[in-house]
Amino acid sequence: MSAATFDEERLPQEDHIVRLHGATWADYQRVLELRGDRSAPRVCFLEGELEIMSPSRSHESVKSLIGRLVEVWCLARGIDFSTYGSWTLEDKSVERGAEPDECYVFGQVESPARPDLAIEVVWTSGGLDKLRIYEKLGVREVWYWKRGRISVHVLRGETYETVPGSEVLGGIDLVELASFLDRPTTSQAIRDYQAALEGHGKR
């Protein structure tokens, strides 16, 4: 099975998305309060649009696996990182809030204000445009996984530009990384990716 068919053949489930129009910031805060410290459902807010998304098992599997492979790459390259999962990012002044599927801060940063990298899995269509949210929250780079491919969006001023490769993790081959997402287990994907990275070092 190739990475391109992963979303069609493996764990064919849909996310459950509820969208509320005309919501207030207080509504958004109340939903966060009711949800508590759990990582799901994930809640987004964009200028009066409130989205509550319960990710499917498929969605969670993909986002976790991408994260683990990012960590494998960083360890192989000696890059310090901290993972913050679905960190709730919000700013009342711009009426935006979001929770990434996975996010990272690179280097040794004691009290980061924002992640350097947010990873989003697009499994079910119809969700809020998270790039519009993140651009006002100052997230440097966002990766979108959709149908086996990862696209990279880098913040330039106040908008995102789609670029060929990551800038926060310069040198990572995301086509190669995505090719390991079809393994039957997470451990197999990690072992195979580690072997591939070790092979590059011997060339």
Task: Tell me about this structure.
This protein is α+β, with helices and mostly antiparallel strands and 203 residues long. The protein has a single domain, classed as tt1808, chain A (Alpha-Beta Complex), CATH 3.90.1570. The protein contains 6 helices and 11 strands. The strands form 2 sheets. A 6-stranded mixed sheet has the order 4-7-8-9-10-11. The protein is globular, with a radius of gyration of 17 Å.
Write the layout of secondary structure elements.
Layout (H helix, E strand, L loop, with lengths): L5 H4 L6 E5 L4 H11 L6 E5 L2 E6 L2 H21 L3 E3 L5 E3 L4 E3 L3 E5 L10 E5 L8 H8 L3 E6 L2 E8 L2 E5 L10 H5 L7 H16 L2
Parallel strand pairs: 8-9
Antiparallel strand pairs: 1-3, 2-3, 2-6, 4-7, 5-6, 7-8, 9-10, 10-11
Helix pairs in contact: 3-6
Strand segment count: 11
Integer-rounded radius of gyration: 17 Å
Q: What integer is the average pLDDT?
A: 89
How helix-rich are the residues, as a percent range? 25-40%
Given this structure, which CATH class is correct? Alpha Beta
> How many domains, as an integer?
1
Structural class: alpha+beta
Helix-strand pattern: HEHEEHEEEEEHEEEHH
Strand content: 25-35%
The CATH topology name reads tt1808, chain A
End-to-end distance: 28 Å
User: Main sheet: which strands, in order across?
Assistant: 4-7-8-9-10-11
Major beta sheet summary = 6 strands, mixed
